Amino acid sequence: MILLIVAILFYTLIFICFKLLHRFKVGNFESILWNYLIAALTGFIVFGIDINTVITASWLYIAFAIGLIFFVVFYLFALCSQKISITMTAMASKMSVIIPVLVSIFYFKDILSTNKIIGIGLTIVSLFLILMPNKSNPIDKKYIFVPILIFLMTGVSDSLFKIAQANYEINSSIDSAKFVSTIFGISFIFGVLTLPFFKINPKRLFIPKNIIGGVILGLINFFAVFFFTFSMIDFNGSFFFPIFNAGVVALTALFGFLMFKEKLSKLNIAGLLLALSAIVLMNL
């Protein structure tokens, strides 16, 4: 459970970091590209990963798919955090709990206890309450597609993580680091290949604040995904994903209010309290 809590903390830091990057006028694409390079290098260097074992890994095709999704969804995270709010970004990504939970039930045949069923139901209701429109923070309609895409793509990537972990015996810290580092490396390659399409001046990549922002984001990102992957080993997906997602949403909303004055309606607050209740219930 400790690893799960650490994963929740690091994922919350990702959303906070995006908000701060915007405040300090750090380039989104540039910092995200550096982030993936740093995250990949962190795993390969710290865990002493042999590149040859990655090339021959049976899970490489899944890592390729997740790497592509990561590259797109991380840019969407930045856009949503900066144009809407970090609370909405977390909510959009974690509402996707429905997708991996359904995969766990129908693909992995998870057996649900009464507490789990009630807890999952409360989690979904809580996330809907948190997602209710707040007049204090109106959403620009031209960005409404962003949280929808985040919802779908995050749900698919979370499901692929669980499938890879279960089917290819990613059951140790080294295995998790190898898988996660490969994903980040693939995301970095996608970023380099698409650089011309974003019409980014290569010189902007080497502006000090873009590099520093990317390094900080990359370190946080690596450990967030590493602990996410490693912590799910000990849990069924139908238990892990509701707790993880509700935890990230609740903590991000709290930091959004305390650090960035993102206001919550009474329904939003009720949703947060319900999410915490669901977490407690599923641990009984």
Can you tell me about this structure?
With 284 residues, the protein is an all-alpha fold. The protein is built from twelve helices and no strands. It has helices at 2-23, 28-46, 51-55, 60-83, 86-94, 98-106, 114-130, 145-167, 173-194, 208-231, 237-260, 266-282. Helix 6 (98-106) packs parallel to helix 8 (145-167) and helix 11 packs antiparallel against helix 12. The longest helix has 24 residues, at 60-83. The chain is globular and about 50 Å long. The mean pLDDT is 86.
Q: Give the radius of gyration.
A: 18 Å
Alpha carbon gap, first and last residue: 13 Å
Largest sheet: none
Average residue pLDDT? 86
Assign a percent range to the helix content. over 70%
Count of runs of 4 or more consecutive helical residues: 12
Question: Short summary of the structure?
Answer:
76% of the residues lie in helices and 0% in strands.
